[in-house]
Amino acid sequence: GVNEASVHVVLPLVQRFRDAHPLVHVDVRRIPARQIGAEVAQGSLDFGVLTFQPAEPRLSAIVLGHDELVMLVHPSHTLAQAKEVTLAECGRQTVIAHNDPSHVRDRVLRLFEQHHIPANILVSLPSLEGIKRAVALKMGVALLPRRCAESEIARGELVALTMPEIRLRRHVRLVYRKAGERSHASAAFLSLVDDRRTDRSAKNP
Hints:
7 helices; 7 strands; alpha/beta
């Protein structure tokens, strides 16, 4: 279970799992982040990916990596050469936002309110791909997790600016049930993720 942003983290894991087990069908479902923990705990999902620690005590988590919120702009934007941007500067731009509710959206809006700065969201779209496309068309700027636009940033299609006043650097976690039977496939997937974590720890003592 993933939300639209988390699928970018899951795909490399699915690729490694498919290389090792090519006959296993992997079903990645789009689930609102606030529902993922409960569905994993109930057994409706084998795994979920979250950027916050779920409240369910029956769950364990493995940190897959980190992510941060950035402001995405077109390479020709006047701020594109800056390394970072302030909330006030962001508030002077046309902001393109996702229209689905989320923890990140709520937190960002609260920060704008606390600083008495209008968020200036003038375009709302139903998908991350649509948002990135709108930024590429110079319709405005967007506040998104960096991992959602790594390919576009690498190709020079978008530029990511950090926002020191937000500092939403978050752990990306794979959550799973602590106890209970697992299918052979889910046990193999968990083992693969755990081995990956061990390899990373060995390389970064």
